[in-house]
Design goal:
alpha+beta, 3-stranded antiparallel β-sheet, globular
Length: about 150
């Protein structure tokens, strides 16, 4: 499986990780951790609107919303919101990768992302299998929430 099957932004992230030596990949993950935006205040004030990904070792919460796509096609784009503590840089980093790679895409584009995409980052030897399962669970939760969206048309 190659990154060519991925949406453009996510493929570029995967390529960035794969271009690095294994020891440098964790540093890139930390950069994504620092770049993860906070959810808007309306979500922070209502934690019940966020769903916990219990497979993650650190407390990670997420939700999705849809908005009309920017191209006026009548399609939807999916917005992703994550909440993870600063003291959980690996979890935040994974959330940052998914946010940067998937935020603003159509439901169909997100659903087409292969379930094993986290393995393409080349981190399987650098972090624990439990943490890899957490990232796979994050992607799975996003895809499940997208699949539950009302169909357009």
């Amino acid at each position: 499986m190659t990154s060519t099957a991925l949406p453009t932004a996510l493929a570029e992230i995967v390529d960035d990780f794969q271009a690095l030596e294994e020891s440098e990949r964790l540093q890139l993950l930390l950069e994504f951790s620092r770049e993860l935006p906070d959810p808007p205040a309306r979500l922070l004030d209502h934690p019940e609107l966020l769903e916990q990904v219990v497979e993650c070792q650190s407390p990670l919460f997420l939700t999705i919303e849809t908005e009309p796509a920017a191209d006026q096609s009548g399609a939807q784009s999916v917005r992703l919101f994550f909440k993870a503590p600063p003291e959980a840089p690996t979890t935040r980093g994974f959330a940052g990768v998914l946010h940067e790679g998937l935020d603003g895409l159509s439901p169909a584009e997100i659903l087409a992302v292969p379930d094993d995409m986290p393995e393409l980052l080349g981190l399987t030897r650098a972090i624990t299998p439990l943490r890899m399962r957490g990232m796979t669970a994050m992607l799975g939760r996003i895809k499940r929430k997208v699949a539950e969206l009302p169909q357009q048309g």
